[in-house]
Amino acid sequence: MTSSSLAPGIRLVTSFSRDSWYRGFILLLTFFFYTAYHLSRKPISIVKSQLHRNCSFVIRPADLNVTDNDTWCDWAPFDQNNYQNLFGWLDNCFLVAYAIGMFFSGIFGERLPLRYYLTSGMLLSGLFTSLFGLGFYWNIHSLWYYCLMQALNGLVQTTGWPAVVTCVGNWFGKGKRGFIMGVWNSHTSVGNILGSLIAGAFVSSAWGLSFIVPGIIIASMGLICFFFLVERPEDVNCSLPQHHVDAEREPLLRNSTNTEEIFNNHTSAVVEATEEHAQAISFCGALRIPGVVEFSLCLMFAKLVSYTFLYWLPLYIANVAHFDPKGAGDMSTLFDVGGILGGILAGVISDYTGGRATTCCIMLIVAAPMLYLYNIFGQSGVSTTVGMLLLCGALVNGPYALITTAVSADLGTHECLRGNARALSTVTAIIDGTGSIGAAIGPLLAGLISPTGWNNVFYMLMSADVLACLLLSRLVFKEVRGWCGYTAPQRGFKEI
Description:
Blueprint lengths: L7 H7 L3 H24 L1 H9 L31 H29 L2 H24 L5 H14 L3 H13 L5 H7 L2 H16 L6 H20 L21 H5 L4 H4 L2 H13 L5 H5 L4 H29 L4 H29 L2 H22 L4 H31 L11 H26 L4 H18 L1 H11 L13
C-alpha cells in the first residue's frame, strides 16, 4: 500500500518521529502538572468574599437566632472589622513559606529524581488544600488552623516550578524560544481560570468544596506523574536534545572566521559530554551569571503586582462593582485570559527584537498608567470592565511570564557556564524565589492598605511597576547599544 492511499490522519501521525511524540507528550504533561498547581492556589481569592459578606444583602433564615445582625452570615474568625488584615495574613502564610522554600527547592530539584519529587509535592498539596476546605465541614473557626494549612501548602508547592522547568530543559535543551515558552507558560493563567471557575461553582453553597475539589485534582495529577513522567530522553532511548547557539554569542560568532572550527561535531560531542557529567552549580555561582540579579529583583516587583491581583481582584470586584462571589470570581478570570495573551505577545516580541529586558520594560511602563485607568473607569460598564481586565492582565503578566520562562532558560544555559546545563533548576529557583518575596509582600500590603481605600492599593501597585522597570535599566541600555551596533568586549563569567 502506497503512502498516498493512507488516511490523512494516519499520514499525520506517522509524519512525526518517536522523539517528537515523546517531547510533545512531556511538554503537554508538564503543562497539566503546573496547571494543577495554580488551580489549587486560586480558591482562596474566590472564597474571601464568601467568608466576609455584607449580611444586609443576605436573606436570613427565619429560624436562625443571632445576636449580631451585621455579621451573622460571616465565617468566624473573618467576621471581625479587621477581616482584610486577616485575609492578608492568610495569604502571607502561603507566600512567605513559598518564597523561603523556593530557594531550597531548586537545589533539591537538581539532585532528586524529578518523578518522585513532583509526585510527592502534588499529593501533599492536594492533602493540605483539602484540609483547608474540610474546616468548613468540621466547623473550625481558628485562624491558626487556616494559617497552618496555607503555610504547609505553600512549602510543598515549591516542588512544582523548578521541577517542571528542569524536566522540560532535559528534553528540549537550549533550543527554547520566547514564543514556545510563552505558550507553554499559559498553564499559570489556565490554572487560575480553572481554579476560579471550580471554586466559584461551590462558593455560595458549600465553600469547603471550593478547596476539596481542586485538592483532589492536583493529587490525581500527582498519581499521573508517578505513572507516566519520563525525566530524561535517554531513559526511553530517545535522542538527546540538540544544543543551539546562545543568543548572546550569535553576534560574536557571526564576526568569527573560525565558526566552523568552533562548532564542529567534535566540539558538540565534548559539550554534550561535559553537560552530562557536570556538577550542579552553587547558589553563589548562579548569582554571578550576568543578568540573574537584575531579572530576579525585577520579578520581585512584577510578581508583587501579579499576585496582588491573584488574591485580591475577586474581592475588589465584589466590593466596588457589587458582584456576588461567583460573579466576581468569573469576572476575575478575564485578567488571566489577558495574561495568556500577554505572555505569548511578550515572547514573540522578544524573539523578534532579541531584547528580553526591553520588552519587559516597555510593558511595565505601559502597565502603570493602565492600572490607574482601570481603578478610575474599570467599573463603569461591563464592556469597559472586560476590556480593561484583558489589557491589564496582558501588561502585568506579560513580563512575569517572560522572565520566569524564556529569560530563566536563557540564563540557566548561559555561555559562561561552559556547557553545564544543570544550572537551570537553581537559576529558575533563584529568580522565582526572589519573585515570590514580592508575591508575599503584595497581598500583605493590600490587606493593610485596603481599609484606607482601594485607590491607595493601586498607587502601591503602580509604584511597584515603576521600580521593576528601573531595575532593568542597565540591561535595557546594553540591549539598545547592541542594536546601535556597539558590541561590548567579552569579559567572562564575572561580568554582571
